[in-house]
Amino acid sequence: MAGGFLGKTLAAVSLPVALASVTVKSLGSCSVAACRNSLSSCRFHVNSNIMSGFNGTKENSHNKARTSPYPGSKVQRSQVPNDKVDWLVEWHDYNPVEYTAVSVLAGPQWADPQITNPAGRTGLVGRGLLGRWGPNHAADPIITRWKRDRSGNKITHPISGKNILQFVAIKRKDCGEWAIPGGMVDPGEKISATLKREFGEEALNSLQKSSAEKRELQEKLQKLFNQEHLVIYKGYVDDPRNTDNAWMETEAVNYHDETGEIMDNLTLEAGDDAGKVKWMDISDKLKLYASHAQFIKSVAEKRDAHWSKDSETGCPG
After folding, report:
1. SS3 sequence, the chain?
2. How far apart are alpha carbons 315 and 295 in whole angstroms?
3. In degrees rounded to 5, what are phi and psi of residue 127?
4. pLDDT at residue 29 is higher than 60
5. What does pTM read for this prediction?
6. Res 288 pLDDT > 90
7. C-alpha to C-alpha distances, 215 to 189, 210, 300, nearest whole angstrom
8. How far is CA 264 from CA 162, 220, 255, 256, 275, in A?
9. pLDDT reported for residue 59
10. Cβ–Cβ under 8 Å, residues 253 and 232
11. Which residues, listed in sequence order, are joined to residue 168 by a DSSP beta bridge?
12. Which of 136, 182, 240, 266 could form a cystine bridge with 140, CB 3.0-4.6 A?
């Protein structure tokens, strides 16, 4: 049991090595400060009691990990005195050498891929608010229907001549921006389950329902989420939480209620991370969180619905 825990702890300590993007270089003072702060805040340190358990002296339990040159190379480590080993000790001048062997950078099957933001630098290292190094997976359900008049007829835009599409939008509590409902994929959870769960929690307040109400809600949602759907986007998204070492990736899926009958039987009610929820007309005037406006534009194009008054549409400014 103790051995398993120690293995996990040591594995966590080795994670910064996977962040190397060059063979050998010295980190700048700004990068070091950011790295140091993110590491200490994330508790990337070995518990003192565990380390001293080998021979009773903490100083002697971390000697081989500080020897130079690094095995199989001529790389010299930065010197770390005994009193500066612990991550909890402040050391503003810590400037470690960054090294990853060429054989590892070659990308063999047993090695992790480089953990750097695929879109480029963000000006921030560490994980920020994101729990995982590398991609953090989310799912965004885009629920749509046609806008109709009181007689049930589809409403067309007077200039484009195309039918107006509506989608369920939520107002995020954290930033106050309107967005598509959605959230993080739980460990071991299928994307399809995440899409349905997140829509229920944020747009229907399912977490606050009674057991009987939840069962009834699930039956209605099954009709919506079991029908044919469109995968609008899958991959990296431009998100304010992204850093150089952790970023958001999502799968945005459109479930369309063609007749509107399914959603007519569901009452929108904001819950969980949503402060408000409502049906919103789709057009190029939308101002949405992160990359959500781009997803909505894709839905409009695929459904041949109104987006812009202009014949040549472009991304919102």
Report:
1. CHHHHHHHHHHHHHHHHHHCCCCEEECCHHHHHHHHHHHHHCCCCCCHHHHHCCCCCCHHHHCHHHCCCCCCCCCCCCCCCHHHCCCCCCCCCCCCEEECCHHHHCCCCCCCCCCCCCCCCCCCCCCCCCCCCEEEEEEEEEEEEECECCCCCECECCCCCCECEEEEEEEECCCCCEECCCEECCCCCCHHHHHHHHHHHHHCCHHHCCHHHHHHHHHHHHHHHCCCCEEEEEEECCCCCCCCCEEEEEEEEEEEECCCHHHHCCCCCCCCCEEEEEEEECCCCCCCCCCHHHHHHHHHHHCCCCCCCCCCCCCCC
2. 11
3. -115, -10
4. no
5. 0.70
6. yes
7. 20, 9, 32
8. 23, 11, 15, 13, 21
9. 53
10. yes
11. 279
12. 182
> Are 177 and 288 contacting, i.e. CB atoms less than 8 angstroms apart?
yes
From the number of C-beta atoms within 10 Å of its C-beta (0-12, 13-18, 19+), residue 282 rates as: buried
* Residue appearing with tokens 């929108």: 268
